[in-house]
Structures are given as C-alpha cells and as structure tokens.
C-alpha cells in the first residue's frame, strides 16, 4: 500500500515536471533524480505559411497549433495532449481577406509567418 502511494506520488511529480518543461534524468549512482530545464522543439509540418481564407472577426477564437502534430494544420486539434505544448489562442480585431499562419512553428511573430524562419530552414536543409 505504501509502495503504491509512493509510486502514484512520484508519477504525479514527473507529470508536473514535464508540463513545466523540465526533463528528469535518473542518476543510479547517487540513487536520485536530476531535474534539468529543456526547450521542447515542435514538429514543422510545412516550411512556409499556411493560408486561411475569409477568417472570422472578433466572435471566433482561433487556436494555432504550436506543436506541429495537429492533423488540421495550422489550427489545433488537441494532438498536443501529453506534451508541454499549448495552442496559441487569438481573435481578429479587424477584417482581412486571409491570414498567413506559421507552418514551421518557429516564427518570431506567433502565430503569423515571419517570412524568414522558414526560408532559413529551407536553406539549411537544402530545399529550394
């Protein structure tokens, strides 16, 4: 019974650490867990912008996928569950014909494509 409670408590602590962006490494030599900070890296489904035509203004909250796992790119479908990623929520304040949301997930102007990050990624990977 005590062992089961300890296991459940440790599992909860691990989950909280993962959600906070920390990684746990077990140190067998000292019989302890070392906790380190890490930055999760998203999957980049598209190296370039993803266009949304006729977006709704004010009355719709969009959820931009920040992990890259969504099957409904560039918007979130909940595939981030179990990771430290969270969708970026936003609404539009003014009317526009279309939006260009980031497909590489590494933009500096979340959730919009900054036009440079994907170009740099393409160059590094040898893509045109």
Automatic annotation (TrEMBL):
Superkingdom of the source species: Eukaryota
Residue stretches making up the Iron-binding zinc finger CDGSH type domain: 43-86, 87-124
SMART domains cross-referenced by the UniProt entry: ZnF_CDGSH (SM00704)
MF terms in GO: 2 iron, 2 sulfur cluster binding
Entry-linked InterPro entries: CISD, FeS-contain_CDGSH-typ
A cellular component term, taken from the record's GO annotations: mitochondrion
This protein's name: Iron-binding zinc finger CDGSH type domain-containing protein
Species, as recorded: Paramecium pentaurelia
Lineage, broadest ranks: Eukaryota, Sar, Alveolata, Ciliophora, Intramacronucleata
């Amino acid at each position: 019974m005590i062992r089961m409670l300890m296991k459940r408590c440790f599992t909860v602590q691990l989950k909280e650490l993962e959600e906070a962006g920390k990684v746990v490494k077990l140190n067998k030599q000292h019989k302890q867990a070392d906790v380190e900070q890490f930055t999760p890296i998203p999957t980049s489904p598209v190296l370039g912008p993803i266009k949304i035509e006729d977006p709704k203004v004010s009355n719709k909250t969009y959820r931009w996928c920040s992990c890259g796992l969504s099957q409904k790119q560039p918007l979130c479908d909940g595939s981030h569950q179990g990771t430290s990623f969270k969708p970026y929520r936003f609404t539009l304040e003014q009317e526009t014909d279309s939006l260009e949301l980031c497909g590489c997930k590494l933009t500096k102007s979340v959730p919009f494509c900054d036009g440079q990050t994907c170009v740099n990624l393409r160059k590094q990977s040898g893509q045109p």
